[in-house]
């Protein structure tokens, strides 16, 4: 019985860690974990800290096991998040055993995000569209190619395990600098291009999650996410300011 409880605890902790790593809200993590625990006949007590999960799992006899797990950092992955939530509902319906859950989680971890080239084109086109929306005119083409370069630069630095704020700083500098250079070289006009080139770096989902966590009463988790998101915003602003300092004041 104790061995089965500890195995369940290990699986549920992995599940919670994966949800947190791929960007789920804290309250949603609680709901998914409670759904799985109750389906397997356990009562969970959960503490979610910014980088750590602490959980106690008690069975019907009152015996309990406790575990602590560090949450690995990772990028947002909505596909994985969605698949994990679907799995939690299947478990609550009684159609998935512990062994099947482990196998399914292994499969979900192998799911790829949107392919790099498709994501690259979508992000670049989105930034260019924003530039056109705000009156950028032909400079939207400069934004498209500048975003391509900046996205590639950020991906390259991330693959080299470069600190995330530094990745954002370099990407903002490349996006703004490349936009300014192309606009000046081809006389496209539209100074808005320098500013719209960094829009893909705005950490919208982390900021939204932090607000939702605070409103749900998960103050510590929410403030931590807010602090991390604002660090990225500050790095982006510094990159933009550096590009403006290098490429001239006509864009101010």
Question: Helices, strands, pairings?
Answer:
Elements: H1 2-21, H2 26-39, E1 43-48, E2 52-58, E3 64-70, H3 78-92, H4 98-109, H5 116-133, H6 139-159, H7 164-186, H8 192-196, H9 204-215, H10 219-247
Antiparallel strand pairs: 1-2, 2-3
Helix pairs in contact: 1-2, 1-4, 2-3, 3-4, 5-6, 6-7, 7-10, 9-10
Number of domains: 2
Number of helices: 10
Question: What portion of residues belong to β-strands?
Answer: 5-15%
Shape annotation? elongated
Give the overall pLDDT as a whole number: 88
Radius of gyration (Å):
22 Å
How would you classify the quaternary structure? single chain
Largest sheet: 3 strands, antiparallel
Verbal overview:
It is a multi-pass membrane protein. Pfam families: ThrE (PF06738). InterPro entries: ThrE-like_N, ThrE_Dicarb/AminoAcid_Exp. Belongs to the ThrE exporter (TC 2.A.79) family. This is Threonine/serine exporter family protein. There is one protein chain. The chain is mainly α and 252 residues long. It folds into 2 domains: 2-109, no CATH class; 116-251, no CATH class. It is built from 10 helices and 3 strands. It has helices at residues 2-21, 26-39, 78-92, 98-109, 116-133, 139-159, 164-186, 192-196, 204-215, 219-247, and strands at residues 43-48, 52-58, 64-70. Strands 1-2-3 form a 3-stranded antiparallel β-sheet, covered by helices on one side. A hairpin with a 3-residue loop joins strand 1 and strand 2 (52-58). Helix 3 (78-92) runs antiparallel to helix 4. 36% of the residues are buried. The model has no long low-confidence stretch (mean pLDDT 88).
